[in-house]
C-alpha cells in the first residue's frame, strides 16, 4: 500500500516493490495532498458543488491514490464525532416532535403581552440555553417565526432582531461540548490524535466569557450596526390555518371538560371558533359548556396542530362519509382547481367524499376565513384540503379528479404526552457525560434508543432528522484529514510555520490560530476547517512547546465564530433569507463581532489553559 510506503519513506526506510507511479506518489505525497486540499478549498468557495460532494470527491482522491488505506477509511466511520452528532440530531428532533420547543416559543409570545423587556430577555435565554444542549440550527428554525411575530407585536424591525438571534445561538453553542457539531468534530479529531477526551462542560468558562462580551457588543453597538426597516413595511403573513370540526370521543378525558380548560385548545396554533350541541351554539357564558359526546368543536389550527388532533385518541377530526380500507392511511394536501364542478357546494356534498374512501381533515383558504363549520363550508377555487386515505386512493384521486394532490405533507403531529420522556432523556445524556465520566457518544446512543422505544419519535422521523449531507461531509473530511497526516503534509506545514511563531508569545499564537480558523470558516464549511486545523495545531503545539489543548480550543472557538458571512454557518443562512438581509449587513456587524469574540475567547483560553 502507498499509505505504508509513504510512512516507510518518511522514516528513512526504502520501500520495496514500488511501481513507478506509486514511487512518484510516495515521493511527492505531501505536495499532492496539499494540492488536493487547495482544489477542495477552491471548490468550496465557488459553490458549484454541494460541500458534501466536494468533501467526498477529496476523500475519494486520497483513497484512489492510496494515501489513505482501507483501515483509515473505515476508521473515519468509527470516529465518535459523526456518531455523536447524528445521535444529537435525533434527540433534538424528539424535542421538536413532542412539542417542547413549540411550547417554549408559545410562552415567549404570551410574556410579550405583559412585558416587552421580559419577552426579549426570555427569548435570549431560550436561545442560549437551547443552543448549549441542542443543535443550534434546530433552535433557530423554531425561534425565527417567534422572533418575527414578537418584532411585529413590539413594532420592531425584524432586521434588528434576527441577526442577534443567530449570533446568540452561535455563542450559546460554545457553552458546552454538545452545543455545536463543530465542537464535537474538533474533540473527536483531537481524541483520535492522542489527547484526553474533552468533558461536556470543559469549555463552559471560555464560552461564558465570549458570550458575555458578545452580548455587550450587541447591546452597545447593535442599534447602530444592525440594519433597520420601518416595522409597518414588513408585516408578516400569519401561518396558514385550517378550519376543521372536532368531536370528543366518549369515554376519553376530554368528556366533562370545558373548552376553556381543555389543554389541546390552549396551545398557540389553535383557536376555538364555536361549540355546537345539536342545532344549538353554546356561548362562553353558558353553564353547560362541559364537553359531551356528540359536541362539535369548530376550530382553526395550524397544519401541525391539525395533525396532532387527527392523531389523537380523544377526538374524531374532520369529515368522512365512507369507511377506510384496511390499508394504512396517509395524509396529503389537495388544491381545488377553477375547473372543479364541486365549486360552490358545501364540503359535506363533495363528490370525492362519496366516491373515494377519504377523510377531509381540514380546509384552508388564502385571503379569508372559511366557515362557519367544516361540513357547511362552500368550497372555492384555491381552497386547500388536508385529506387522508390509502396510498392507492390518493393516487386514484390525483389521476381521476381535477384536484392537485401533493402527496408529501411537510408537517408532523406533536406527541405532547411524550414530552417529559424527551426532556428527561436529554437531561440524562448530559448528566451522565458531565458528572459520571460516561462517554458522550455512548450516552447519546442510549438516549436515541430510549426516545425510539418510548415513541417520542418514529424511526422514519429519526432517519429524516439525521441531515445526511452534514454527516457525509464530516466523515469525508475525517478521511481527508487522515490523508494530510499520512502524506506528511501536516508535518510539512508545521515545520514551515513553527520558525515563524517561535518568537511569538503564547497569546499571540492563540490569536493567530483563532484568526486563521475564523477566516477560513467564513469562506468554507466549518466542519472542513475543523478537521484540517485540529491536527495541524496539535503538531504545532509540540514544536512550540505549548499545551496542545489550548491550541485545539482556539480552533474549536474559531470554527464556531462565523459572524461576518451569511453562508459560513447554517443559522446565519436561515436568518439571512428570513430577514431579507444584504450580504453587507452581516459584514457590518459580523466583523466587529469576530474581532471582539476572538479576543475574548483567546484571553479566556490563555487564562484557563496556559
Helix content: 55-70%
Gap between N and C termini: 41 Å
User: Could you state the CATH homologous superfamily of the domain at 241-406?
Assistant: Regulator of K+ conductance, C-terminal domain
Structural category: alpha+beta
Main sheet overview: 5 strands, antiparallel
Q: Which regions have little confidence, pLDDT < 50, spanning 5+ residues?
A: 4-18, 232-237
What does this structure look like?
This protein is α+β, with helices and mostly antiparallel strands and 610 residues long. The chain has a domain at 241-406: Alpha-Beta Plaits, CATH 3.30.70.1450. 57% of the residues lie in helices and 9% in strands. The chain has helices at residues 2-10, 20-27, 29-46, 51-64, 70-78, 80-97, 100-111, 116-133, 136-153, 162-173, 181-192, 204-225, 303-310, 351-355, 391-400, 419-435, 440-453, 459-464, 468-487, 489-501, 506-523, 526-544, 548-560, 570-579, 583-609; strands at 241-248, 270-277, 280-282, 296-302, 315-317, 319-320, 330-335, 359-364, 384-389, 404-406. α1 (2-10) packs across α2, α6 packs antiparallel against α11 and α21 runs antiparallel to α22 (526-544). The model is unreliable at 4-18 and 232-237 (pLDDT under 50).
Amino acid at each position: 500500500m502507498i499509505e505504508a510506503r509513504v510512512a516507510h519513506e518518511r522514516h528513512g526506510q526504502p520501500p520495496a516493490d514500488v511501481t513507478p507511479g506509486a514511487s512518484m506518489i510516495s515521493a511527492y505525497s505531501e505536495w499532492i495532498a496539499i494540492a488536493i486540499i487547495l482544489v477542495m478549498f477552491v471548490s468550496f468557495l465557488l459553490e458549484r458543488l454541494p460541500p458534501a460532494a466536494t468533501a467526498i470527491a477529496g476523500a475519494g482522491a486520497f483513497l484512489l491514490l492510496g494515501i489513505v488505506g482501507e483501515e483509515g477509511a473505515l476508521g473515519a466511520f468509527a470516529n465518535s464525532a459523526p456518531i455523536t452528532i447524528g445521535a444529537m440530531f435525533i434527540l433534538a428532533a424528539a424535542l421538536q416532535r413532542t412539542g417542547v420547543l413549540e411550547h417554549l416559543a408559545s410562552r415567549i409570545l404570551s410574556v410579550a403581552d405583559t412585558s416587552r423587556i421580559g419577552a426579549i430577555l426570555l427569548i435570549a435565554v431560550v436561545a442560549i440555553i437551547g443552543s448549549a444542549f441542542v443543535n443550534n440550527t434546530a433552535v433557530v428554525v423554531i425561534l425565527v417565526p417567534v422572533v418575527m411575530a414578537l418584532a411585529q407585536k413590539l413594532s420592531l424591525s425584524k432586521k434588528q432582531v434576527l441577526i442577534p438571534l443567530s449570533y446568540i445561538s452561535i455563542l450559546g453553542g460554545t457553552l458546552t461540548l454538545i452545543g455545536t457539531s463543530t465542537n464535537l468534530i474538533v474533540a473527536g479529531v483531537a481524541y483520535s490524535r492522542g489527547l484526553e477526551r474533552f468533558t461536556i462542560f470543559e469549555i463552559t468558562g471560555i464560552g461564558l466569557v465570549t458570550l458575555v462580551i458578545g452580548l455587550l457588543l450587541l447591546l452597545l453597538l447593535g442599534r447602530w450596526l444592525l440594519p433597520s426597516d420601518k416595522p409597518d413595511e414588513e408585516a408578516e403573513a400569519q401561518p396558514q390555518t385550517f378550519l376543521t370540526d372536532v368531536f370528543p370521543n366518549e369515554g376519553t378525558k376530554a368528556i366533562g371538560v370545558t373548552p376553556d380548560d381543555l389543554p389541546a385548545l390552549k396551545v398557540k396554533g389553535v383557536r376555538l371558533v364555536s361549540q355546537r350541541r345539536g342545532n344549538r351554539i353554546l356561548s362562553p357564558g353558558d353553564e353547560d359548556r362541559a364537553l359531551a359526546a356528540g359536541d362539535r368543536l369548530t376550530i382553526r389550527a395550524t397544519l401541525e396542530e391539525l395533525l396532532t388532533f387527527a392523531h389523537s385518541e380523544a377526538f374524531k377530526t374532520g369529515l368522512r362519509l365512507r369507511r377506510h380500507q384496511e390499508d394504512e392511511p396517509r395524509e396529503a394536501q389537495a388544491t381545488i382547481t377553477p375547473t372543479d364542478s364541486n365549486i360552490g357546494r358545501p364540503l359535506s356534498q363533495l363528490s370525492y367524499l362519496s366516491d373515494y374512501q377519504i377523510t377531509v381533515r381540514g380546509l384552508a383558504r388564502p385571503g379569508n376565513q372559511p366557515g362557519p363549520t367544516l361540513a357547511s363550508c362552500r368550497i372555492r377555487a384555491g381552497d386547500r384540503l388536508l385529506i387522508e386515505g390509502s396510498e392507492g386512493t390518493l393516487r386514484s384521486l390525483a389521476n381521476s379528479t381535477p384536484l392537485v394532490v401533493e402527496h408529501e405533507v411537510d408537517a408532523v403531529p406533536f406527541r405532547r404526552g411524550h414530552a417529559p420522556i424527551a426532556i428527561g432523556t436529554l437531561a440524562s445524556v448530559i448528566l451522565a457525560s458531565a458528572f459520571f465520566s460516561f462517554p458522550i457518544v455512548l450516552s447519546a446512543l442510549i438516549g436515541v434508543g430510549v426516545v425510539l422505544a418510548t415513541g417520542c419519535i418514529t424511526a422514519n422521523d429519526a432517519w429524516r432528522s439525521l441531515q445526511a449531507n452534514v454527516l457525509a461531509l464530516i466523515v469525508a473530511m475525517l478521511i481527508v484529514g487522515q490523508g494530510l497526516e499520512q502524506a506528511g503534509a501536516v508535518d510539512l506545514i508545521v515545520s514551515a510555520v513553527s520558525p515563524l511563531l517561535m518568537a511569538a508569545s503564547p497569546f499571540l499564537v492563540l490569536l493567530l490560530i483563532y484568526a486563521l480558523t475564523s477566516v477560513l470558516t467564513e469562506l468554507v464549511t466549518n466542519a472542513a476547517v475543523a478537521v484540517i486545523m485540529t491536527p495541524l495545531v496539535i503538531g504545532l503545539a509540540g514544536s512550540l512547546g505549548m499545551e496542545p489543548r489550548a491550541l485545539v480550543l482556539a480552533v474549536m472557538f474559531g470554527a464556531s465564530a462565523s459572524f461576518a458571512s451569511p453562508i459560513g454557518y447554517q443559522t446565519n443562512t436561515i436568518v439571512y433569507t428570513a430577514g431579507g438581509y444584504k450580504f453587507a449587513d452581516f459584514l457590518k456587524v459580523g466583523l466587529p463581532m469576530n474581532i471582539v469574540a476572538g479576543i475574548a475567547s483567546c484571553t479566556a483560553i490563555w487564562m484557563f489553559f496556559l
